[in-house]
Amino acid sequence: MKVIISGGGSGGHVFPAIAIANELKKQRPDAEILFVGAEGKIEMEKVPKAGYPIKGLWISGFHRKLTLRNLMFPFKLIHSLYRAYRIIQSYQPDVVIGVGGFASGPTLQIATLKGIPTLIQEQNSYPGITNRLLAKRVTRICTAYDGMDKLFPKEKIILVGNPVRQDIIELSGQREEGIEYFDLDKNKKTIFLFGGSLGARALNDSMAANKDLLENNNNVQVLWQTGKLYIEEFQNCATAQLDNVKVLPFVDRMDLAYAMADIMVTRAGALTISELCLVGKPAILIPSPNVSEDHQTMNANALSTKDAGVLIQEKEAISMLEQALHIIDNEQLTNKLSENIKQLAQPQAAKNIVSEILKLIK
Questions:
Q1: Measured between alpha carbons, how far is 328 from 54 in angstroms, rounded to an integer?
Q2: Tens digit of pLDDT for each residue in 61-113?
Q3: Rounded-to-integer distance, Cα 44 and Cα 171, Å
Q4: Which domain CATH number covers 335?
Q5: Which of 27, 53, 126, 223 is 20 to 30 A from 191 via CA?
Q6: Are strands 263-266 and 283-285 parallel, antiparallel or unpaired?
Q7: Host domain of residue 213
C-alpha cells in the first residue's frame, strides 16, 4: 500500500500529518508513506525526524500586496505542478492525503486529475484557501468542527477531530512528575502561559506588565514560555524575577506541562485547541489577528460559545492574567469550563481518519 501525505508550512499542519502517518503504520505496517512538502518549511525538518521520507516542492503562498514574491508565484506554481506530477507518476500512490498548506495544492490537484482517491484533513473551523479550492475535487473531507457544510460539499464531510500527539491522551497521575520536572511548588496552583514555539509578543508583553498581580500572591505560580524569539527580551524583566514565575524559551515536555497546569493561557491554533480539549483543562484563548481569514478567532469562538473556553481579543490581552486568577479561584467556574471542553475532545481522530483512508483504497 502506497500513500502520499502532502502539506505543511506550520506545526498545525505538520504534526497532525505525522500523527496520521503513525496511525497508518500502526494499522498497516506494510504501508509505504511518502511526504510532499514545501522547500524551506518546517515539514522538511520535522518529517525526517519522525522517520518518514519527504520530497520538496518550490512553492509558497500568495500575498495580497504586490511584491516580488507574488510575481514569482505563477512560475513556482507551474514548477510545483510539474514536480508533483513527476513524484506521483514515479511513486504510483493508492491514495493522496492533503493536510493544508502550500504544497498540498499542486499535489492533490495532480492526484485528482489522475483519478487517484484523495482526502483532505481540515484542522480549523474556517478552512484555508488551499483546502477550499480542493474541496470540490477531492473524494473525502475530514473536519475537526461541525457546521463545515457551509464551506465544503456536505456529502463529502466526515467529522473526526484533529489528530494529536499520543503522549497527552492519558495524563492522570503525572501532575507531581510535571511539578518536579519544571521545578515548581506542588502546593500552588499553576498557570501555564504559552504562545507557540516561537512565542507571541502580545502575550509576553501582557505578562511582563502584570507583575503587581503576582508579586504578593502566594497561592499561584506561572510557567511562562516566552518562545525562542523573545527569551532574551523578557527573561530579565521584573515579572520574570518573581519567585512564583518560571520562564522558559521552549517547553520540550508539553505532556508534563499540561498535566501539572490548572489553567492555560494560549493562542487559538487548531492543534492547540484539540490538545486542550483532550487534557480537559480550563483555557483562556487569545487568537492571533495575524493569520489568514482570522481563523484563530473562529476556532476560539467554537469553544467560547459552548462555555468551553474564555475568549479574549489580543487588544485586551492585558486582562488575561486577571481573568486567569479569577477562574483559578472559582472552583465552580473551573469545573464548568473543564467539563465543557472535555465534551469536545476527539481522542480517536487519527484512527477515524485512517479508517476513511483505508475505505478509499478498498
A1: 44
A2: 665 566 666 667 788 889 999 999 999 999 999 999 999 988 999 999 999 99
A3: 30
A4: 3.40.50.2000
A5: 126
A6: parallel
A7: 167-342
